[in-house]
Write a structure and sequence with these properties.
Helices cover 48% and strands 11% of the residues. Strand 9 and strand 10 form a beta hairpin. It is of the alpha+beta class and 479 residues long. The protein has one domain: Orthogonal Bundle (Cytochrome p450). It starts with a helix and ends in a 7-residue tail after the last strand. It binds protoporphyrin IX containing FE. Protoporphyrin IX containing FE binds next to helix 4, helix 11 and helix 17.
Length: 479
């Protein structure tokens, strides 16, 4: 349908039904985790109702979420309503229809749970912008040092065992890297020793268990993971140890926080959350996602990346610089394409601030004030009406040249890739850093290798990548 014609349609009710209270929400949860799986859960309902805007239940449902009912927006056109903070309230819905106990965050509602209308939101977000700006020169050297040593380990594991699990190595390396980049103090050199990533993972699980499955039998997982929140007391020792590291390592950032009018303790819980949950949690999922897609793209694509990366680095005098990375059009496109296909944070929520209309490609839907809107991002960013017949495929050069017009439909950061985070919106403040780190991974790989192979599978929160072979660079600065 012609786009301007859609706007003139009479708004109607979104199709779909929530079923019986309680019983249907549990039945839907089982579909989501065990009988259908996440993607099929949404796709089958879109197909059944012939609409990409529809009413469904979302997990976890009883007893953790008071109300599992949402209006789902599952196409590229309707999804961005979730970014519009004039239309949706973003209070306490970072994890969706349930909220983890604030005992897991020092008793504070940290930035991710704050609506921009709350004064602390702007202060904390400004703190993060200032921290990232103050450490911008530390990122590239820290990344290169931590990830070149990761790749050296990959090489020795390949010699010894013929394979090397990237996720396991990345879990340790990303933790060290991100803390080093932000604070210049290695967690492994603090009292945390090498326990940081394990403590972090445990703390993340206490917040995210309602949304994951470990692949165990339903009879075990339902009562353990999906029915009641795990008691925070069992992770409080780990959290205290992490907090101690942050309080000592982040002195400069905490001074900055005080000058912005934030209390030192609240700022420290926020820095911990932004580093461990937002940044580290994000990298745990994103880096295997990028690597896996590039592994599957094959040797010919690797040759093109290697040529581009090596030329740009050679032109920059053999150094990996921001300017050199900016010239790598194919590398940039490949990272965006991986983020489009595998957005590391797949669910977004927002509560309608007033009665409103939401447009899909084909229809207009009326939504009432107070209704919860929900987006499953992979449906929106694989919308064939925008990305055509290759919407579900990895097209490495999709965003090169004219293709950059499609960047407005890349939503991984809770905003369009063509827009910027600010203290007034809820777009990820790490947006530029995140794409930079993605590009750095690709550059590091192809400075070092001509090509590589890996088995790509599924892990707890995202893709799993196991290297099976690397071919050392035969030319260029890495050879
Ligand atoms: C918000 C994704 C890395 C800090 C968000 C949101 C998404 C997201 C989707 C919006 C959530 C919502 O409100 O529905 C990611 C991904 C990352 C990543 C995929 C990495 C792969 C980072 C980094 C930082 C960060 C490096 C470091 C500063 C935050 C914060 C918010 C946020 C503080 C809340 C923003 C606000 O309240 O306005 N991120 N993020 N994230 N992210 Fe990121």
């Amino acid at each position: 349908m012609n786009q301007s014609a859609v706007g003139s349609l009479v708004p109607r009710q979104a199709p779909g039904s929530y079923g019986l209270p309680f019983v249907s929400a549990i039945r839907d949860r089982l579909d989501f985790y065990y009988f259908q799986g996440e993607a099929k859960y949404f796709e089958s309902r879109v197909e059944k109702h012939g609409s990409t805007v529809l009413r469904i239940n979302v997990p976890p449902g009883p007893f953790m979420a008071r109300d599992p009912r949402v209006v789902a927006v599952l196409d590229a056109k309707s999804f961005p309503v979730l970014f519009d903070v004039d239309k949706v309230e973003k209070k306490n819905l970072f994890t969706g229809t349930y909220m983890p106990s604030t005992s897991l965050t020092g008793g504070f509602r940290v930035c991710s749970y704050l609506d921009p209308s709350e004064p602390t939101h702007a202060k904390v977000k400004q703190l993060l912008f200032s921290l990232l700006a103050s450490r911008k020169d530390a990122v590239i050297p820290a990344f290169r040092s931590h990830f070149s040593s990761l790749l050296a380990t990959v090489e020795s594991q390949l010699v010894l065992a013929g394979k090397s699990n990237f996720n396991t190595l990345n879990d340790f390396t990303s933790f060290e890297f991100i803390a080093d980049a932000y604070f210049g103090v290695l967690p492994s050199a603090s009292d945390l020793g090498t326990t940081g990533p394990t403590k972090a993972a445990k703390w993340l699980i206490f917040q995210l268990h309602p949304l994951v499955t470990f692949g165990l039998p339903l009879i075990l997982e339902e009562p353990l993971l999906h029915t009641v929140l795990l008691p925070p007391i069992f992770v409080s020792g780990d959290y205290k140890a992490l907090y101690k590291y942050f309080y000592a390592a982040a002195t400069k950032a905490l001074d900055m926080a005080e000058s912005l009018g934030l209390n030192r303790d609240e700022a420290c819980h926020n820095l911990l959350f932004a580093t461990v949950f937002n940044s580290y949690g994000g990298l745990k999922v994103m880096l295997p996602g990028i690597l896996g897609r590039i592994a599957e793209a094959g040797e010919k694509f690797h040759q093109r990346l290697a040529a581009e990366v090596r030329t740009a680095v050679a032109e920059a005098g053999g150094k990996v610089t921001i300017e050199a990375l900016e010239k790598m059009e194919l590398t940039k496109s490949a990272v965006w394409e991986a983020l489009r296909l595998e957005p590391p944070v797949k669910f977004q929520y927002g509560r309608a601030k007033a009665d409103m209309n939401i447009e899909s490609h084909d229809a207009v839907f009326a939504v009432k004030k107070g209704e919860m809107l929900f987006g499953y991002q992979p449906c929106a960013t694989k919308d064939p009406r925008v990305f055509g017949s290759t919407a579900r495929e990895f097209v490495g050069d999709r965003f090169v040249g004219e293709g950059s017009k499609l960047l407005q439909y890349v939503y991984w950061s809770n905003g369009r890739e063509t827009e910027s985070p600010s203290v007034d919106n809820k777009q990820c403040p790490g947006k530029n850093l995140v794409v930079l780190v993605g590009r750095l991974l690709v550059a590091e790989m192809f400075l070092r290798y001509d090509t590589f192979t890996a088995d790509v599978g599924v892990d707890l929160l995202g893709p799993k990548v196991e290297f099976t072979g690397v071919t050392k660079a035969t030319s260029g600065p890495g050879a």
